Structure formats: structure tokens, C-alpha cells
Amino acid sequence: MFESSKQQFSTRGLISIPDHLRKLDEQAFTPLLISIGPIHCSNPKLQTMKKCKVQFCECFIQRANIKLRNLVHTIRDKEEEIRSYYAETVVSSISNDDFMKMNLVDGMFILEFLIQSYLIRGGDDPTIRIPKWMHPILQFDLVLLENQLPFFVLEMLFKQANFPTELGSKDSEPLSLMKLAFYFCACYRVQMMPPWIFDTQIEHLTDLVRFFYVCGKQQHRGPGGAKLSYSATQLHEAGVKFKVAPEEYGGHYRHFLDIRFDLKNGVLEIPCIELNNEKIRLIRNIIALEQSHYVGAAYVTDFFIILDILINTSKDVDLLCDKGILVNYLGDSNAAALAVNNLNNTILWDYMNSDYLKICEDLNAFYIEPWHKWKATSMLWRQYFSTPWIATSTCAAIILLVFTAIQTIAPEGLNTGFAITLYAYRGQVAMHSHVNCIFKSPLLLLGQRHCDSQLE
């Protein structure tokens, strides 16, 4: 009894978005074309795909050479477990027959879509042709967190199928559901399928994409958030060399989250990140999954927290784009900076990937090292005093601020008698009476006595 209760607690609401994250960007969690599962099934904007679902289901039944009643029995036997993946408020009003039909139709649609995506990548013609614009939208709809079926539903249906041997003949290994899913995830820059994935419990397709990004590597996470104090531009001015991480290292593919910093040579390697609307939606969904069910293993969240700290302004985006680390499809650099900064709003991060914590410490140490700190300061000097005109403008702005502050805080009596003015003549600073004050000019009036004067 206790084991059953524990299992129900661990899966209940697994496919759900925390309310505080949903409020940040409702559209990021809402499918555009197709509903999968019970959460968005009543959305009137998604009903037009029902006919397409039926066509894919008919194609799957014919391809799998299986009787429909066998699939029905398979779903019915696991109905209670399937329901446990959703909040009680979502599934309580759905009848047993409707729930079974929904899982059966959606499951067969997903499997047939995976098969056809696999065939298209191999150069074969798809059995059912859909408009080209529709395919990438369907791909992204199928990885939204609240648009999921439990992965074991897909596994049960796939095991019932009797596919012809030539379906997977392009590879030496027989066709498997995990192989189909891997090819499906390739559009998210997934480059390798670790062998231990077959021993890993995958909850749904969103969870699968996250697994490929993390690559199953269980990094240690230590207490405390990232304490990086400087942006990408500041670090670059101090001498940090930004470099896009190579896809392979030592004959092995590097996973999506693999950041490395060489303290001795000051080289920071970050994997290439494409920023577009679909990628931002995907990352929001993975972060939502981690915040609700991977609190102790929020590795993707950790990565984008580091990226958020590095990016403060459009200049940081421009720098990372110049180095090939960012590929910006969001428009201008300000839009990209805003998108990255908004990813981690309302996110709690009391723990952090220990590798990242060490990188933050090393970057801070690199920056405050006297030579590097002087170099960063000299960059500011060159920025504001690089030419006589820029230097003059900078000095004028400083003088104006000083006199404004003096006039604001000084007693009124100090504005009478002699005014302390600066007069640069032959390299000397002289004291002049108010009558000869250089600031009494047709262009600028400062102080109470100047303001009382009439411009000629």
C-alpha cells in the first residue's frame, strides 16, 4: 500500500507547469497546431488537426500490421497509471472511454510522426504528405511539457507493432523507439545517444530532450548560487578570451551544457547556442520541468543562469555573436538579451552545478588579478578619453554634474561674494572673482547670481 502511494505521489502532476512560470509567458507553454493528452484537448484552436491525427493513426495500423482491439486492451490495462501523470483536476472529468481513445489516437499519431520524420531524414518519401511549414511547428508542439503522453504509453504501442524488417534497413541495428526519438530530437542539436539511455526511465518527450542535453551525466551540485560578478564584456575587457566549444573533445561529443574555463590561459569555452523563438519556448519548458521535478538536478537551468549573468546588455550579445557562441535569430541584440534575462525570472537556485561554481570563482579571480583589473580599467579610459572631443565632452559632463550638486546642497550664502571657478590658462588653475567668471557666458548660466543675469 505504501509503495503504491509513493509511486502515485511521485508521478501525480508530472506533466504540468508551475503557475508562477506560466504567468511569465503563457504562449511558451501552449501548442500552436496540435493537442496531445488531456490538458489542451478542449482548446478550440487545435481542433482542426483531428482529421490529420486520424490519417496518421490509419497509416500506423497498416504499417504496424496490428489489430486495433489489441491496442485498446493495452491502453485500458494501464489507464490508472496513465491518469496519475496528470493533475486530478485535469483528468477527473474525462470518462474512461474518452481517456482511452485520446491516449490511443495521440500515441499512434506520435509514433507515426516519428517514423515519417525518420524516413524523411533518410531520403524516403513520407506516406502522408503535410505542408512543409507544418512539420517544424508539429515538432515543437510535441516537446511542450503540457502536451505530452507518458513515454511508457508509446513504448507499449510500439512493442505491439510488427514492422517490416526493411523499415530500419538503412542502419545496421534494428529500428527501436529510442532510435526514432533520437532522430526526432536531432533538430534540437542533439548529437549523440549514450548507451545508458536504454537503462534510464524517460517520462515523456520533453524529459527525453532534457536527457539528451544533460547527456545523462550526473554532475555534483553544491550549495549556493553562481557568484559570477562580471558580464561577458567586462570579462573580455579584462582579457578573457571567449571561444565556441568544439563539438568533439578527445574523440567524444561534448554535451550541450559543457562549459570550460582555462584559468592559466584565460580561455572560456561555451557551446554554440541558437536563439530563436522555438528554442526559447523549448528552454522555458525544460526549465519548468526541472523546477517542478528535477529541483536537485536542474542542470539546464544552471546553464542558462550562467548565460543570464554573462549577458546584461546588447554589447554582451554582440560579443558572444562575434565569437560564434550565440547565433541570434531574434532580431536585434536587445531582443536577444531580454529573452535570455527573462528565462530565469522567479527561478530559485540555491544549488548550482559544482563545475559552474568553480568556473565562476576562477573568472572572478582572473578579473580581480591586478594586471587584468588594470587592463579592464584602461579600456574604460580609452572609451571615454580616446579623442580630444570625447575627452572634452566627458570633462564637461563631470563639471556640470559637480556644479549642479554644489548648487543643490550648498547654503544660499555660498552663492554670493566670490564664486570658486576653474579657469585653465597656461596649465594653471586660478581663482577669479564673480565678475570675471568664465561661466557667465551667452551659452551657460550656473548659480543663483548667474540666473539673475540677463542674456545679451
Strand order of the largest sheet: 2-6-5
| Average pLDDT for all residues | 80
Secondary structure category: mainly alpha
In terms of per-residue confidence, which ranges show pLDDT below 50 for 5 or more consecutive residues? 1-10, 413-456
Profile the largest sheet: 3 strands, mixed
Number of strands: 11
Gyration radius over CA:
31 Å
Instruction: Summarize the amount of helix as a percent range.
Output: 40-55%
How much of the polypeptide forms β-strand, as a percent range? Answer: 5-15%
- First-last Cα distance: 96 Å
Number of H/I helices:
20
Overall spatial form:
elongated
Give the count of structural domains: 3
How is the secondary structure organized here?
Blueprint: H1 2-11, H2 19-22, H3 50-64, H4 68-77, H5 79-83, H6 88-91, H7 96-121, H8 134-141, H9 151-160, H10 177-185, H11 205-214, E1 221-223, H12 232-237, E2 241-244, E3 248-249, E4 252-253, E5 260-262, E6 267-270, E7 273-275, H13 277-293, H14 299-310, H15 314-322, E8 326-328, H16 333-342, E9 351-353, H17 354-368, H18 370-385, H19 388-409, E10 424-425, E11 428-429, H20 447-451
Parallel strand pairs: 2-6, 7-8
Antiparallel strand pairs: 1-9, 3-4, 5-6, 10-11
Helix pairs in contact: 3-7, 4-7, 4-9, 7-9, 7-10, 11-13, 14-16, 15-16
